[in-house]
Each structure stands twice: as C-alpha cells, then as structure tokens.
C-alpha cells in the first residue's frame, strides 16, 4: 500500500484496517477500526483533513479530497465520513460531511460543504451540489439530487448490512496477506 506523509503528517490507521496495495493515502487521514480501502482509491488529506469512521468502506476507483482554508471559508472543507458508510465504485467525495449508515451509489459525486445526514441512500451517478443538505431517512437521486422517497425498513437494514458485508470481505483479504 502507498501511505505517504505530507508536511510531516502521515495517515493513521485504526485496528484491523485493510488498504489495498494499489490505493494511495497521503497526509492528514485517520481511518477508524475495520475500515476498508479498495483498489485504486486516491485519498489526499493535504490541504485539510480526512476522517473515516469505523466499518466504513471506500470502493474501487474512488477519489477523496478536501478544500483548503480561504478568505471565503476560513476552515476550508475537510472530508468527514461517519460509521458504517458504503461508498460505491468510482465516487468523488470532496470536502463534504457524511453521517452514519449511508450508501453512496456508484459514480456519485458529493461536493464541498454538502452534509448528508444519517441513514441516507444516494443513487448511482447522482450529483450532490456544494452546500446541499440531505435529510436523514430518504433516497436521493439525480443530477442535481432530489429527494425521491423515504427509505423502507429493508433499505434501512441494508445500510448496516452492507457495511458489515465489507467488514467480512476485508477480513478475508487480510487473512490472505498474513
């Protein structure tokens, strides 16, 4: 795996973390316990920080980045991802905040200062514009996203199950490398 420091700050990995050898993590990044980072993920915590909560998974080809502090935004825009979040293949998360138990569908883009509350599904290919807030308990789709409908009980249960499935899968990968 490629773990790189930036200005003397290196990524910190929690317990039982899997980072694929083709992924690149640089700078101020903290991964919670049981996080998995899959092939070709690029994560740069260079001009701000990235935090990823326990049992979250970042799937193949996803880009994670942040925005620097500026005169318009004194703190800049860090990237904060909660617990039990599944980020599908080839997503772009940039300086946004995701709560817990979220599914970000394949190819979705979530832009600076967007806030995604807990228990949300973002449909594949959706665009969450800068500063948009997605309320808890709904499916959002489109470009730009629109609230489609409330999540049903099976979808809510799937959010935790998806994260747990990736914990099992990353443990299988870790067993292969040990």
Automatic annotation (TrEMBL):
Signal peptide interval: none
Cross-referenced Gene3D superfamilies: Hexapeptide repeat proteins
Superkingdom assignment: Bacteria
Pfam families: Hexapep_2
PANTHER family membership: DYNACTIN SUBUNIT P25 (PTHR13061), PROTEIN YRDA (PTHR13061:SF56)
Name listed for the protein in its UniProt record: Gamma carbonic anhydrase family protein
Organism: Rheinheimera tilapiae
Lineage of origin: Bacteria, Pseudomonadati, Pseudomonadota, Gammaproteobacteria, Chromatiales
């Amino acid at each position: 795996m490629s773990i790189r420091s930036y200005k003397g700050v290196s990524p910190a990995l929690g317990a039982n973390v899997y980072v694929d050898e083709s992924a690149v993590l640089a700078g101020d990044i903290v991964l919670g316990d049981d996080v998995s980072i899959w092939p070709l993920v690029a994560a740069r915590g260079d001009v701000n920080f990235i935090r990823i909560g326990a049992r979250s998974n970042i799937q193949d080809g996803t880009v994670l980045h942040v925005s620097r502090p500026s005169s318009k935004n004194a703190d800049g825009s860090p990237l904060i991802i909660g617990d039990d979040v599944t980020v599908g293949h080839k997503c772009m998360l940039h300086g946004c905040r995701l709560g817990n138990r979220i599914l970000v569908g394949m190819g979705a883009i979530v832009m600076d200062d967007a806030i995604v509350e807990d228990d949300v599904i973002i449909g594949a290919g959706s665009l969450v514009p800068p500063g948009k807030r997605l309320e808890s308990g709904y499916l959002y789709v489109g470009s730009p996203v629109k609230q489609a409908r409330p999540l049903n009980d099976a979808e809510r249960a799937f959010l935790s199950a998806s994260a747990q499935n990736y914990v099992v899968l990353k443990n299988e990968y870790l067993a292969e490398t040990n």
